[in-house]
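Q: How would the structure tokens look for this protein?
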Amino acid sequence: MSEIPQVDLKIPSGGTLVLQLLLHNQSTESLFLHPQIKDWVVDREDIISSLSYVEPICTVLAGGEKKSQKMRLEIPSELKPGQILKNWLQFPGIQEAGIPVNIEIIESDKNLRSITDLFLKIDLPFADRNSKLSPILGLMSGLMEFDRIPMRWLVVEILVKLCQIGEESSKSPAGSELLYQLHATNFFKVGVSASKSIQFPRWIAKTLSNMEPVIKNNQAQASLFYLWESWLFSLAEVDLGSGEIASTIEVPPFLAEELVKELGNDSDRWFAYLMLGLAKISPSIAINLQNIATETPLSSGNLLTDRSLQSIYNLAIKLSGLDLLPASWLVMEILLLVTGKGREYLATEAGTKLLTKLRRTHFFKNGITAFTSSQFPRWLAISREAANTYYESLGVPNCSRGVIYYWENWLGNLGKNQAVYSANIVENLLAKQWELDAEEWFGAIVLGLVQISPRIATQIQNIADRALDNFPPILQHPVALNNMLDEANSLPR
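A: Here is the predicted structure in token form.
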């Protein structure tokens, strides 16, 4: 086991402590690090608010990788010599135990400002290098950090991924024909005008550039998609019961920069590939786009209706607002949609057979253990309540809440009469899926991913084909959602 380091220093009141954090990820899982300091405890009695700065504010540490962060702590100036300050340096979602920070206040020279530098070597998590708990820690870390990642980052990766799918679809006869028909519609022309108006390609490129210092790892291939797909398939690499390690399942890099470089500032191609990507993954959107492709074009003088102009304005406002919302709200909606697809597939003979096989694999057992240990249903409940509180403050009715619902409606308003959206699917799924346990959640999500991604479907089928004939039953410890905020020793949130 790695020992928990400790900080013991003597610093004058009003001074500054600069912690040079030398971080090492000794697990095999990528970790999202966001170090935090708590409030100061003075002489084991009084509480004083802390003031700290971290640079960079967060970072991704791949398995075995080393990086550094700098934390600057301002020591309260109203303290007297001899008083003792105590604090804890924490890594939410990674390590429940904090690193003790003990400071004794000493006499200060009023003519000099005291700055104390300390290099602190930290091996995370505090466990063996090949810790069999790394899949659990990876899930805990990821769920926690979705509250701190701006929604904009996730939205950009989704948009780029859809455009990659759309570009591939444009090479097929069906995709090429749909694109040819859409080009002549007012829907398409207004969409391209909206993209140009807010410099959509530049917005994509700038966001990816801002993400790079945090997301990229030493293999120069990390992204939010890459990190989560790597975590998913890492479940097949280790038996959490015995600690045995299996072969690694390789995950291809995301390569968003290649598409950005190829498309450049061509708003026409960006919007075209985005529509084809949406049509490829959503049968309902595909049907609506086919209907739009057959609509009668308006004259050029009537191209931008009042509703279309409002859509362009809304696009600019909403994209800027994505910096203020946490990614967790969108992740929750996506997981509900994926779970819905998985439960539909489970109702078929093929889906039932696949899940029956998966239940006899270490992959599935590890997934249930990770979901249960990280209290996945609790995370969903908190994320839902946070989002609902926000929507209530804006006066948004229940039937109209949700990020996905809003953008489907926005897309529909680009045309004169046609609509691309349907009912608020996410809100309906909430009522149907909320009482699922960890095993049902994990099984439905995996089956949903199988339906969405052919590449993931191939890997999951390969895992299922290695199912054991005699596999012990999976034991779970249910999580009580009615006591989420008063648990002792819970991970910081």
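The chain has a mean pLDDT of 78.

The radius of gyration is 25 Å.

Upvote if useful.
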